[in-house]
Amino acid sequence: MEAILFKEKSRGKVWLIHFLVRCFATILLLTDGSHAHADGVEMLSNDVDAPPPVQRTDVNSSEVILRDDQWRMVKTRGSQFVIGDRPFYVNGFNAYWLMILAADPSTRGRVTEVFQQAAAVGLTVCRTWGFNDGGWRALQKSPAVYDEDVFKALDFVVSEARKYRMRLILSLINNWDGYGGKAQYVKWARDAGLNLTSDDDFFSDQTVKGYFKNHVKNMLTRVNTYTNVTYKDDPTIFAWELMNELRCTSDPTGNKLQAWIHEMAFHVKSIDPDHLLEVGAEGFYGPSSPARLQANPNTYAGQVGTDFIRNHRVLGVDFASVHIYPDTWMSGASVEAQLKFAQSWMQAHIADAEGALGMPVVFTEFGVSTKARSAFNATSRDQFIQAVYGLLLDSTRRGGAGAGALLWQVFPEGAEYMDDGYGVVLPKAKATAGIMSAHSKRLVVFNSRCEWSCRWGCRKEEEQSETRRMLMT
Ligand SMILES: *[C@@H]1O[C@H](CO)[C@@H](O)[C@H](O)[C@H]1NC(C)=O
Ligand SMILES: *[C@@H]1O[C@H](CO)[C@@H](O)[C@H](O)[C@H]1NC(C)=O
Ligand SMILES: *[C@@H]1O[C@H](CO)[C@@H](O)[C@H](O)[C@H]1NC(C)=O
Ligand SMILES: *[C@@H]1O[C@H](CO)[C@@H](O)[C@H](O)[C@H]1NC(C)=O
Fold first, then answer.
1. Is the CB of 377 under 6 A from ligand 4?
2. Would you tell me how many other CB atoms lie within 10 Å of the CB of residue 236?
């Protein structure tokens, strides 16, 4: 989120039929089960893929990890995520600040708190910054020079996430100035004597690309000081994200950014072929799909150097990312108009992820501000969240590519000073927490019951009766 914004598939069909047959009973029960109540925070006790979150007091990290043979890398199969043979639909959140607060012993506990609160409403994925370049509490103080204490703070975040069975999307750099970003990289190069004139030189200058590649390598090959697990081998990491909200406005053709994505996707995969990779795009359609430009929130969005379809066809990119910010992209529009936009925006991207791309799509940031000048208040914000979940569920029920959404953003109690108007403090926002929890519970059923490789007949009687028990509660 950034405050200053605007001024091939026949194989899939066969699979889909297979999927539908497999999930038939579950789907029937779920469509009937649309009575789930938004009645406050509830613990998930029937989560098969992700057992109930471990309470802090029970945690003994080395023991947990040794017993944890179910903790495997998330992969993709067609336009779904899978863990082993099971589908993995994502309900998650953003918390960009984890490393920063973990770097100070007096605020470190907030990391644990927010994982605990998020796990209690069934969230399983958290997106956060794997960067802080130059400036306050910098991870990377200057090119390839790291503050070991801050890196240890990120180690803590990763280790703590695992305890709460929370997977992380780590973004590797910011497009915006917050926490350094591409401007800081270009500044470093200027300080080293290069004649660079634009922050977009980040995408083309050899020296700057070299700095970034080094950061990628240092991150992926980091050995976690808490767990001894190398980041590139750690299933706690759901995916790498190249750049938060990348844009290259100096080249509206999109060629410059496209070349950068190619080069960096290859670089990431050459070091870490196992983890998933996404680009970090907001999802704007660009010149490669003129018919889709009308789905953009405005004309400018098609001219920022990104191109949803083309960017995601790059080899090595495993899933599509899209942000949903009706209130900043269409400020002044009514709540109804904004909800309508969000709906068509999501439907277009889900259709393209299935049809044009053949990969899952995650709405990696979605949210609306409830601050003074926004069209939204807490009630209509919850309607928005529910609408996003509803559209995803429509996709999930038919085996579509809508793979999940991550709310922007969740804060722990006492961190309200960081709130940009989008913040949700789960224990204080009972209605919102209830909506999130109800959605998580539905996903648990999809995630644990639709096993592709297990033939219908081979299911254990025990498992079936457990399903019945679960769906009846
Ligand atoms: C965690 O496990 C280790 C090794 O089994 C043990 O020495 C330690 O006392 C345990 N810590 C807690 C808090 O249970
Ligand atoms: C820096 O590059 C710009 C544009 O390429 C050029 O006009 C300028 O003369 C260069 N400055 C120096 C000091 O080389
Ligand atoms: C990590 O490795 C070091 C050195 O081999 C060892 O002393 C330490 O106990 C290990 N920690 C864990 C959590 O496995
Ligand atoms: C929230 O906004 C809606 C209009 O979008 C309005 O009808 C409702 O009364 C508002 N609720 C509160 C609590 O202000």
1. yes
2. 24
Cis upstream peptide for 303 (omega within 30°): no
> What DSSP state is assigned to residue 3?
S
CA of 228 to the centre of ligand 3 (A): 6
Q: How many CA atoms lie within 13 A of 55 on its CB side?
A: 4
For residue 59, give the ligand nearest its CA: 1
Helices marked H in 144-240: 148-163, 181-191, 206-220
Interval 404-429: pLDDT, tens: 999 999 999 988 889 999 999 999 99
The pTM of this model reads 0.83
Distance separating alpha carbons of residues 323 and 246, to the nearest angstrom: 12
DSSP string, 94-129: E-TTHHHHHTSTTTTHHHHHHHHHHHHTT--EEEEE
Question: Nearest-5° angle of CA 223, CA 316, CA 232?
Answer: 10
Domains within the chain, CATH numbers bracketed: 9-472 (3.20.20.80)
Give the length of the chain.
473
Is residue 143 within 8 Å of 111, Cβ to Cβ?
Answer: no
